[in-house]
Amino acid sequence: MSPAGFGDPSDLPVSWWGELAPTDEVDSRCWFCSFEGLDLWLQSFDAGEWRFVWRYRDDRRAESPEGIPVRAPRRCSPEALPADGKSLRALGVDDLHLVPRLADRPVVARPREPFVLLPGARQQAYLSTPVWVCLQNDSATSVLELPARQLSQTWFGPNARVGEVAYAQRTSLRTRLDWVGRSSDRAITPVLLENHGSESLRIQRFSLPAPALTLYRDRRGHLWTQRITVRRAPAADSVEVDLGRRPPAEAQGAEELSSSRVVAHRSLLVRALSSLFG
After folding, report:
1. 75 forms bridges with which residues in the sheet?
2. Does residue 188 contact residue 220 with C-beta atoms inside 8 Å?
3. How far is CA 262 from the centre of its chain?
4. Running DSSP on this structure, what letter comes out for residue 27?
5. If 216 and its partner were Cys, which of 2, 74, 145, 254 is the partner (CB 3.0–4.6 Å)?
6. Which residue from 212, 27, 258, 1 is spatially nearest to 107, judged by alpha carbons?
């Protein structure tokens, strides 16, 4: 039985991660791949030299449940490299690996409309966020990291002195899984909201602690993180954030692709209410 909200199991996402091994043929040393908002070209030379060229697109289809089709790396002609993209050369890299990772900062999302969670209520929600395309060498040293979609930066917190720099995205916090944008360059995070306080909890934005999350791939190719449970305390203006230790039940047959960037210490898991909901 396939997870709810994901249609025909024959419609599988593209697996774009893996190894790119250079060859001796000059015309076979260039690859092109594309993601939600990113076009990326990779070109290898002799003696462990690589050149990367990339540019971003803006496509509103990324906000729809269908998302934008991902194109896995495929051979292309060196003449296909654009002159108007950003570029970087790397030396000392023999074989190159493409690895998906989660964002290096929290990601702020909004529900389609603000909603109120009444005292004693709980609500399951889902959030889909772009992954980072990480280029690594054989020893897993990072050469270049690029988000699959270019995100703007925002300040998230109760005032200008208290808070942190985060990424802002258009994709909403959804209350149904089949409303979530999904593709092989987006990760889905189940978020369980519980209000144990005596007052209603108004949710206008939510800050996802992406660096503390682990990335998984289910047996159908979709990307997930562990479940997050957010509990508002009964008598305090604070919340407890519980990060699951395994893939969510919705991610059947999941395996780990990337570990978290930071360790979730206790100081991260008990936070002021404004640090999560703005």
Report:
1. 31
2. no
3. 15
4. G
5. 254
6. 212
Phi/psi class of residue 10: alpha, beta or left (left: φ > 0; alpha: ψ in -120 to 50)? alpha
- Please check whether residue 181 is in contact with residue 63, taking contact to mean a CB–CB distance below 8 angstroms: yes
Radius of gyration (Cα) for the chain, nearest Å?
20
Beta bridge partners of 122: 194
Q: What is the DSSP string of 76-125?
A: --GGGS-SSSEEEEE-S--SEEEEEE--SS-EEEEESS-EEE-TT-EEEE
- The residues near 222 (Cβ < 8 Å, ≥ 6 apart) are 6, 13, 182, 184, 188, 251
User: Distance (Å, rounded) from C-alpha 211 to C-alpha 101?
Assistant: 9
Please say whether the beta carbons of 247 and 209 come within 8 A.
no
Collect all residues with Cβ–Cβ distance below 8 Å to 86 and sequence separation of at least 6: 53, 54, 55
Give me the count of residues in the chain: 278
266 SS3 class:
helix
Q: What is the pTM of this model?
A: 0.85
- Encode pLDDT of 16-56 as tens digits: 999 987 666 655 689 999 998 999 999 999 888 999 999 99
- Please tell me the distance from the alpha carbon of residue 158 to that of residue 96, in angstroms, as a whole number: 43
Q: What are phi and psi of 186, to 5 degrees?
A: -130, 145
How far apart CA 181 and CA 64 sit, in angstroms, is 6
pLDDT tens-digit map of 71-102 = 889 999 999 999 999 999 999 998 899 999 99
